[in-house]
Specification:
globular, 232 residues, three-stranded parallel beta sheet, mainly alpha, single chain, 7 strands
Length: 232
């Protein structure tokens, strides 16, 4: 909080009237009040294989906050149960976009960053920790070693000493990265025991019903069928 904020003088650590979406953490869980029944129902829907639950309501009513906290509560319950099941919240929500190729690429990047952030949770929940060390270097270093198609740690065959290129280059986006993420998703959670909870937010921003249908049809064929990803 800013050094010049008035809220600490009133005993608050932040603006109590903020309309920001609650985060998937302890603070968000504490601040979500009066929605336990809805959160429990959404947990059952998300945790039911083959379902694609939706949440409808007026703008600003708190739909995104409910979903973020719900995903956090599912993660916490799995870590406490330690029964080989794990649900984790995606590190970012997704907005509908007219650039569907860019949206698809962003989805894969967010899924990768989610696996990296919560890698340690797998062991706590009773699963094998996914090997994301090279993936982390590839995504989060300023440069990464070039890769070519084939086998290897990320679904590729490393070409040692072949040079480097920046993460934003064309080679990065078209090198088989989606195939690698699909493989990680398929193996990380075991036999369909959990997944990454992803939120497609503010679908009302798509201007027409036809455009919304086109967006959903594209995503259905390309990313809604990703293994161990639960969409809301």
């Amino acid at each position: 909080m800013s050094l010049f904020s008035i809220w600490p003088a009133f005993g608050f650590s932040a603006n109590p009237y903020s309309q920001d979406t609650l985060s998937a953490d302890d603070t968000g869980d504490l601040l979500l009040v009066g929605r336990d029944a809805e959160s429990n129902e959404m947990q059952r829907l998300v945790g039911t294989e083959g379902s694609f639950p939706t949440l409808e309501g007026p703008i600003g009513v708190g739909k995104s906050s409910l979903l973020e906290v719900t995903a956090y509560r599912m993660r916490r319950a799995c870590l406490e149960a330690k029964q080989g099941e794990l649900y984790i919240p995606a590190v970012a929500r997704f907005q509908p976009s007219s650039d569907l190729e860019a949206l698809e690429a962003e989805i894969y990047r967010v899924l990768a960053q989610t696996l990296i952030r919560y890698a340690a949770d797998f062991e706590v929940a009773g699963l094998f920790r996914p090997d994301v060390e090279e993936l982390n270097k590839w995504l989060n270093s300023s440069k990464y070693s070039s890769w070519q198609g084939g086998g290897g740690a990320l679904g590729f065959q490393a070409n040692t000493g072949a040079g480097e290129e920046g993460n934003t280059g064309e080679g990065y986006t078209k090198s088989g990265f989606p195939t690698a993420i699909r493989h990680l998703l398929a193996t990380a959670f075991g036999e369909q025991r959990g997944g990454i909870v992803c939120i497609l937010d503010n679908l009302e921003l798509v201007e027409t019903v036809g455009a919304a249908r086109t967006t959903l049809d594209h995503l259905r064929d390309r990313v809604f069928n990703l293994p161990n990803v639960r969409w809301v």
